[in-house]
């Protein structure tokens, strides 16, 4: 019998499975998520932005996002183009080890589209962020964004 060693188990299931098990323990997460918030919506609003601070423990690339609150969650980048603010999908956002990047209004954000229901102030919206390391290892980090109309004050 040839049992898979720890290395091939990692390769087969990805670090995601391991991280999912230890999601509650931030110590093991490769990326720390702070001050996550989502802009509350009015009835029938179909999209909104989610913002946070991300601090990577090692070089990784943010490759996507997912939330049960939205049909589609995309990493978006706002930029000025000839005086016009434009928004486009950012497929890969590199994070440098030890550096904090801020997803904020008017800049990088997670766009939640096809919202399942109204997001009200104080709601807690679960969010899964996907990352890829330089060696190809994939991981996921679970976060929770608090709904409001302004960034959290602490
Ligand atoms: Cu957007």
TrEMBL record:
Annotated signal sequence range: 1-29
Keyword Signal: yes
Domain of life: Bacteria
Alphabetical keyword list: Signal
UniProt xrefs under PANTHER family: BLR7088 PROTEIN (PTHR36302), COPPER CHAPERONE PCU(A)C (PTHR36302:SF1)
Name of the molecule in the record: Copper(I)-binding protein
């Amino acid at each position: 019998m040839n049992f898979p060693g720890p290395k091939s188990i990692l390769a087969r299931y990805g670090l995601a499975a391991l991280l999912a098990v230890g999601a509650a323990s931030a110590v093991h997460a490769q990326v720390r998520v702070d001050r996550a918030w989502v802009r509350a919506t009015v009835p029938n609003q179909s999209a909104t932005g989610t913002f946070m601070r991300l601090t990577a423990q090692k070089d990784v690339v943010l490759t996507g996002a997912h939330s049960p609150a939205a049909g589609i969650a995309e990493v978006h980048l706002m930029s000025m183009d000839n005086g016009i603010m434009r928004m486009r999908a950012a497929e890969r956002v590199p994070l440098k080890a030890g550096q904090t990047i801020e997803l904020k209004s008017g800049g990088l954000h997670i766009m939640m589209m096809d919202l399942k229901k109204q997001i009200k102030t104080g709601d807690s919206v679960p969010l899964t962020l996907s990352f890829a390391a330089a060696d190809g290892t994939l991981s996921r980090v679970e976060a929770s964004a608090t709904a409001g109309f302004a960034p959290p004050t602490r």
